[in-house]
Design a protein that fits this description.
Layout (H helix, E strand, L loop, with lengths): L21 E3 L13 E7 L2 E7 L4 H22 L7 H8 L5 E2 L2 H16 L13 H7 L5 H8 L5 E4 L4 E4 L12 H15 L5 E5 L3 E5 L8 E6 L7 E7 L2 E7 L1 E3 L5 E3 L16 E7 L2 H13 L14 E7 L5 E5 L2
Antiparallel strand pairs: 1-9, 2-3, 3-7, 4-6, 5-6, 7-8, 8-11, 9-10, 11-14, 12-13, 14-15, 15-16
Length: 334
C-alpha cells in the first residue's frame, strides 16, 4: 500500500540539494487550492519524492502518484547497489571477464554512462564505485592503493555487446555505481509518465537535489527555483527560472550544526582519484533530467571537461563558490 500523504499545505516547503542549498519557491501555491492543486509525496530509491500536480483532481493524483512510485520501485530493483539481488548488484558480482546478459533497461543505462564518459572526457565515470565510501577514504593515503584502483577500474574497462545485450568487465575493481545517474533516469521516467497522462503543469522534487518543472507556475511564466547559500539558512545565491526543464545541484560537502563546512570526500576526479574538498556547488539546467544530474557533478569536478560534441543550446550551468570568510560568488559556466 502506498502512503501518498495528502497534504493541506504546499507539500514542498523546501527542497535541499546534495549540500542543502536548493529551495523551491512555492509561496504562491498556498493560495491556489481552488485550481485543483494536488500534493503527494512518498519514498522510493532510498529517498523522498515530492510532487505538486496542477489542475488535477484527487483521484487522478492518487492514480498518477501510484503509477510513478511503481515505476521508480521497478527501476530501483534494476539499479540499486544496496540491494544484493538487484540486477546491477548481480552484474557487479558476475561480469568480470564474462559476458553477462542483462535487461534492455540496464543495458541502456550502462550504454548512456559510456556515452557521458566520452562527452565529459572521462570526468563522469560510473565504473569507479570502489573509489568512494568509507573504505576508500580510510585507505586513500596507503602507498599504491589509489593507483591500483585507477588502473583496474572505470567504465573504460567495460565492454558492451549490443547484439547480445551483454556486458563484460575487464578490470578486477570495476564496479558500476548508479549514485551519479540513478535519480536522473528516475526523473526521466517520471517525465514520461506526466507527458503520457497529459499533465502539462507539475513540479517534482526527488532526493533533495533534482527538480523537474513541467510547464509553468500557475501565477507566472515559469517555476522559480532558488539555489540557497550553504552557510546561511534561507539565503539565496541564485534563482533559476524553469519551464519544461530540470535542475540538478551537486556539492562537495555539507555544513554541520556548528556552521563548519565538512567535505564529503566522495566527490573526486576519477582520472586522478583526487577529492574535491573546497566548499562549492554546481547547478545544471537541461530539458533532460539525466543530463542535468550527470553534468552538475562533472562540472563540479572540472569546469572545462565538456566535449565540443555536447549540444549546450538551451542549457545553463553555474557554480556557487565560497571563500574562507563564507562569502560566495556565482560563476556562470554555460
Amino acid at each position: 500500500m502506498v502512503d501518498l500523504n495528502h497534504s493541506s499545505g504546499t507539500g514542498l516547503k523546501t527542497c535541499t540539494s546534495k549540500m542543502s542549498q536548493t529551495q523551491i519557491n512555492l509561496k504562491a501555491l498556498i493560495i491556489i487550492n481552488k485550481m485543483n492543486t494536488q500534493y503527494r509525496n512518498f519514498f522510493s530509491m532510498g529517498t523522498r519524492l515530492d510532487a505538486v500536480f496542477i489542475n488535477i483532481d484527487e483521484k487522478q493524483a492518487d492514480i498518477l502518484a501510484s503509477r510513478i512510485k511503481n515505476d521508480l520501485d521497478k527501476l530501483e530493483n534494476i539499479l540499486s547497489i544496496y540491494k544484493p539481488d538487484s540486477e546491477l548488484s548481480i552484474l557487479n558480482r558476475t561480469a568480470l571477464k564474462k559476458d553477462t546478459a542483462v535487461s534492455p533497461d540496464l543495458y541502456e543505462a550502462v550504454s548512456l554512462c559510456m556515452d557521458y564518459y566520452k562527452l565529459t572526457n572521462g570526468v563522469f565515470d560510473a565504473g569507479r564505485a570502489k573509489l568512494t565510501g568509507y573504505a576508500a577514504r580510510e585507505r586513500r593515503n596507503e602507498d599504491g592503493y589509489i593507483s591500483n584502483l585507477l588502473e583496474s577500474s572505470g567504465i573504460g574497462l567495460v565492454e558492451i555487446n549490443e547484439e547480445k545485450k551483454s556486458i563484460r568487465y575487464h578490470g578486477k575493481n570495476v564496479k558500476i555505481d548508479s549514485g551519479g545517474f540513478g535519480k536522473g533516469l528516475a526523473i526521466r521516467e517520471v517525465k514520461k509518465v506526466l507527458i503520457s497522462e497529459g499533465l502539462g503543469n507539475a513540479l517534482i522534487s526527488f532526493g533533495e537535489s533534482m527538480i523537474l518543472a513541467m510547464g509553468t507556475h500557475p501565477h507566472g511564466k515559469y517555476w522559480p527555483v532558488a539555489v540557497e547559500g550553504i552557510f546561511e539558512i534561507q539565503s539565496v545565491a541564485r534563482v533559476a527560472r524553469l519551464n519544461d526543464q530540470s535542475i540538478s545541484t551537486s556539492g562537495t560537502g555539507f555544513v554541520d550544526a556548528s556552521g563548519i563546512f565538512r567535505p564529503s570526500y566522495n566527490i573526486f576526479d576519477p582520472r586522478t582519484g583526487k577529492t574535491i574538498n573546497d566548499p562549492m556547488t554546481m547547478s545544471f539546467i537541461s530539458d533532460d533530467p539525466l543530463e542535468a544530474e550527470i553534468l552538475s557533478t562533472s562540472l563540479l569536478i572540472d569546469t572545462a571537461c565538456l566535449s565540443e560534441e555536447l549540444d549546450s543550446s538551451g542549457k545553463e550551468a553555474f557554480a556557487v563558490i565560497y571563500d574562507d570568510n563564507k562569502n560566495f560568488v556565482v560563476r556562470e559556466i554555460l
